[in-house]
Amino acid sequence: MFGNLTEKFEQIFKKLRGVGILTEKNIKDAMREVRQALLEADVNYKVARNFVRAVEAKAVGREVLRAIEPGQQVIKIVHDELVSLLGSEVVPLAPLDKSVTIYMICGLQGSGKTTLAGKLALQTKRKNKKPLLVAADIYRPAAVKQLKVLADSIGVEHFYLENKKPPQICREAIKYAQKNFIDLVILDTAGRLHIDDELMLELEQIKADVHPDEILLVADAMTGQDAVNIALEFHNRLQITGVVLSKLDGDARGGAALSIREVTQCPIKLASVGEKLSDLEPFYPDRMASRILGMGDIVSLVEKAQETIDMEQATAMQEKLLKAKFDFEDFLEQMKQLKKMGPLDSLLGMIPGMGKAFKNIKVNEHDMERMVAIIKSMTIKERRNPSIIDGSRKRRIAVGSGNSIQAVNQLLKQFFAMQKMFGNMNKMKFKGFPKGFAPFNL
Ligand SMILES: Nc1nc2c(ncn2[C@@H]2O[C@H](COP(=O)(O)OP(=O)(O)OP(=O)(O)O)[C@@H](O)[C@H]2O)c(=O)[nH]1
Ligand SMILES: [Mg+2]
């Protein structure tokens, strides 16, 4: 998903991360590229323009945090702007707290309406509530049958009246629902290839007749700009209450996702991410922004590090790591810092490229305690220069810390391997870590 856009962002930020000081010029240059990348991803041009302006205004003249690379600060600003563009918060669907709640589903042909209807019905059933799938698409010959098959496959009720127009079918469906203790009525309306007046009039009629609690527009994320224009037209006629982005599992370029909310001012409520009926998720603006940016979770990593780590100290530590001068004294210090930051595994997973490298290594609190005990049984000299730890020293350390010699050996082995790894990273000019964060693992 969003592969190209993510790649572009990565290139732009790579350049920015190399610069020592952010000037108005290099921010402007980067933002020109961001704008270009957005346009190529089929983001609405006004949205792209406003986005870049907002980022620029926040980035230029901002006091640079000493401990963080300026480029990373810009990543954070871009990320926050993306989140706000996508809507900031998860907006839930209307709750099922009345006797009968009604969701009306609309959108162009093939956008994924019927699939969404099935997904919503399944979710409702799983919450032990009763849904009713209503066939309000009588124009496409197989549509009624498709909905019936879907309803049967998940064991929910289906409603249809032959030789009746959709508004009447919908009205009767509501009556049926009231009598039969249905919690949620889902109206699966017809799609057309293009928006036409006849269809809109019919949808307006249904809306006026049954007063839906939600009018959801299904927008195919693969169609980029088109999806945005369509959403706008539906919104103007029907005042939709939410957008569902469908086919987000495909290789959508991102334009629809990034523009729809800004252009329609209507929240994106759900993400449809596959053909299976369980492939439905709430739309999380922050997660989507992180995915689009492709920075792993570098943003939250920076945030977390900002909150808890003493930056100056951590920067010094990182330099030591990269010069492979890291010793057990530093190690103890790192343990303390990391403990403040929460579970190690999740922390490592946030560093781009690191998740994989450390996939098979699990660190638990118990292991950490043991390592600390072993290190504390070393003399200062041994901690500073672990290579002097010979057989008799090992025995002493093992006894002193209440561990076996094997445990001491293992710690030493891992420590040297780690030292070597960071040494190698340095040779490769590894630049993956945010400044101020000294990663390590055993
Ligand atoms: N990959 C993927 N395919 C989807 C998704 N949602 C729907 N589809 C597929 O898109 C096609 C059209 O889906 P439908 O739900 O029938 O679309 P519709 O809007 O009801 O179409 P009409 O009734 O003809 O207007 C089907 O092949 C679905 O399996 C999705 O989120 N991801
Ligand atoms: Mg359909």
Q: What CATH architecture of the largest domain would you give?
A: 3-Layer(aba) Sandwich
Termini, distance in Å? 33 Å
* H/E topology pattern: HHHHEHEHEHEHEHEHEEHHHHHHHHHH
Number of DSSP strands? 8
- The CATH class of the largest domain, by name, is Alpha Beta
Major sheet: size, sense and barrel closure? 8 strands, mixed
CATH topology of the largest domain: Rossmann fold
Quaternary assembly: single chain
Coarse morphology = elongated
Output mean pLDDT: 82
Indicate how many domains the architecture comprises: 3
Q: Poorly predicted ranges (pLDDT <50, ≥5 residues)?
A: 349-360, 429-442
Helix content: 55-70%
Portion in beta strands: 5-15%
Structural class: alpha/beta
Structure description:
The protein folds into three domains: 87 residues, Four Helix Bundle (Hemerythrin (Met), subunit A); 183 residues, P-loop containing nucleotide triphosphate hydrolases (Rossmann fold); 130 residues, Signal recognition particle, SRP54 subunit, M-domain (434 Repressor (Amino-terminal Domain)). Strands 3-2-4-1-5-6-7-8 form an eight-stranded mixed β-sheet, with helices on both faces. It has 442 residues and is of the alpha/beta class. Helix 7 packs parallel to helix 8 and helix 19 crosses helix 20. The protein binds guanosine-5'-triphosphate (GTP) and magnesium ion. Guanosine-5'-triphosphate binds next to helix 5.
